[in-house]
């Protein structure tokens, strides 16, 4: 087992280490007077059931999140297996992230991507400074899941998309 101490942690080693934690992939979306907004995010999790709260982290250098923050609301689109191209499309800056994607809106006007596993529409509850990121807490106002067939989630592990077989139980 290889270890390092806190005063000698190399950023690349840190990324490789935390990359061994499998996570789902989401698109955080919003809408302002210039149109729909969104970015790929894998640092998403539930925080509280009462009240219903969720959280995500975003780089402080993001040009999209400040526009979402200004609206006070956002939606979380939980991607399903097969939406790798959608994840990649929203991870790139300077492109039309919404090109050729079927979209509908929440009651708050936030865009929802078709074909996702689930979605949550939120109001910003709090923000916390966290190094080179901002931790955003949102209060869930509306939510939904895929009806009928339940596709597998889009997973990310060690820098690659992975498949989870939901019918396998350990």
What layout of secondary structure does this protein have?
Layout: H1 11-18, E1 23-24, E2 26-32, E3 35-41, E4 44-48, E5 53-59, H2 65-71, E6 73-78, H3 84-91, E7 103-105, E8 111-113, E9 118-130, E10 133-145, E11 154-157, E12 160-163
Antiparallel strand pairs: 1-11, 2-3, 2-6, 4-5, 5-10, 6-9, 7-8, 9-10, 11-12
Q: In brief, what are we looking at here?
A:
With 170 residues, the protein is mainly β.
Describe the 3D structure:
With 170 residues, the protein is mainly beta. It has a single domain (21-153), classed as Electron Transport, Fmn-binding Protein, Chain A (Pnp Oxidase, Chain A), CATH 2.30.110.10. The chain is built from 3 helices and 12 strands. The protein has helices spanning 11-18, 65-71, 84-91; strands at 23-24, 26-32, 35-41, 44-48, 53-59, 73-78, 103-105, 111-113, 118-130, 133-145, 154-157, 160-163. It has a 7-stranded antiparallel sheet with strand order 3-2-6-9-10-5-4. Strands 1-11-12 form a 3-stranded antiparallel sheet, with no helix packed on it. A hairpin with a 2-residue loop joins strand 2 (26-32) and strand 3 (35-41). The longest helix has 8 residues, at 11-18. 25% of the residues are buried.
User: Regions with pLDDT < 50 over 5+ consecutive residues?
Assistant: none
Give, in spatial order, the strands making up the sheet with the most strands: 3-2-6-9-10-5-4
CATH class group: Mainly Beta
Estimate the helix proportion, in percent: 10-25%
- Named at the architecture level, the CATH assignment is Roll
Outline the biggest β-sheet: 7 strands, antiparallel
Shape: globular
Q: Assign the structural class, choosing from mainly alpha, mainly beta, alpha/beta, alpha+beta, or little secondary structure.
A: mainly beta
CATH topology: Pnp Oxidase, Chain A
Q: Which radius of gyration do the C-alpha atoms yield?
A: 17 Å
User: How many domains make up the coordinates?
Assistant: 1
SSE topology string = HEEEEEHEHEEEEEE
Cα distance spanning the termini:
26 Å
How many strands appear in the DSSP assignment?
12
